[in-house]
Write a structure and sequence with these properties.
Elements lengths: L4 E5 L4 E6 L10 H15 L6 E6 L3 E3 L14 H25 L4 E5 L2 E3 L1 H7 L3 E5 L3 E3 L14 H9 L1 H10 L3 E2 H6 L5 E3 L4 H13 L3 H15 L4 H16 L3 H15 L2
Parallel strand pairs: 2-3, 3-5, 4-6, 5-7, 6-8, 7-10
Antiparallel strand pairs: 1-2, 8-9
Helix pairs in contact: 1-2, 2-3, 4-5, 8-9
């Protein structure tokens, strides 16, 4: 792993992953995306990981695609360029699926700009906190591309509603931290110096819960975001609860509760 990514292990199975290209607001290059894929693959196999916090070094969370690489495609005619750009597009978008595939929940601690692909990374997390300095935009349309990229057209309307999503995708305008909280794009906005403490506090609350229960909550929550009916959502919940019960977590919680009750005068 190069210096462009920094992984810091915290107590209790919490890890802090920093995008570390502060001079360019942590913009994504092909090499950085490849490193992220590799690291997320390693974290997916790490049974000790309980929560991942994703943030950026410096003044930005992530400025999206580094346009300095926009012309870097093989000059092999139209088909060659199409193949190269398809591979790049799928590689970038695949990061969101990698975040989803982690057993551990992901908290995005958004400091400064989250543009384009940076917005997508934030949306790929289960929980988002914004520093007061945070700014979000679907920048794709600003650079001659469609606003629908890296899963944003699916994720954004589930946070802010369809009308607000279309407005953000079609204008590419900046949304400040206060508006992001008001419209449901982030869970909360905090002063810049409180961003990581807030994310870590939530991570500790999550990590204190049963690991299997948190994992199934992540999987079930995402699956039921796509459920076609209440009945189907409940069917999945019922099966997940029976599966969770078989791990013994409920029994341990019940025994601990009874022990506390017995210890009271």
């Amino acid at each position: 792993m190069s210096d462009a990514l920094v992984l810091e292990r915290q107590e209790g199975g919490i890890a802090l992953l920093r995008l570390n290209r502060p001079a360019v607001l942590n913009a994504l290059t092909d090499a950085l995306v490849d490193e992220l894929h590799a690291l997320l693959g390693e974290l997916a196999a790490d049974t000790t990981l309980r929560v991942l916090i994703l943030t950026g070094t410096g003044r930005g969370f992530c400025a999206g695609f580094d346009l300095g690489e926009a012309a870097a495609a093989p000059d092999e005619g139209e088909l060659g360029r199409a193949i190269a750009w398809t591979a790049r597009q799928e590689r970038f978008a695949g990061l969101i699926l990698k975040l989803r595939a982690l057993r551990a929940p992901v908290i995005a601690a958004v400091n400064g700009l989250a543009n384009g692909g940076g917005l997508a990374l934030a949306l790929g997390a289960e929980i988002r906190y914004a520093a007061a300095s945070a700014r979000f935009n679907a920048a794709f349309v600003k650079v001659g591309m469609t606003g629908c990229d890296m899963g944003v057209s699916w994720l954004l309307p589930r946070c802010v509603g369809l009308s607000r999503s279309f407005e953000m995708l079609m204008t590419g305008r900046l949304v400040d931290a206060a508006e992001a909280e008001r419209i449901g794009l982030v869970t909360a906005t905090v002063p810049d110096e409180e961003l990581l403490p807030r994310a870590l506090a939530t991570a500790r609350e999550i990590a204190a819960n049963d690991a299997f229960g948190v994992w199934m909550t992540k999987r079930g929550g995402w699956a039921n975001a796509e459920a076609p009916s209440l009945q189907q959502a409940i069917e999945l919940e019922n099966r997940s609860q029976i599966l969770a019960q078989s791990t013994g977590g409920l029994q341990r919680a019940a025994e601990a509760l009874l022990a506390r009750r017995r210890s009271k005068p």
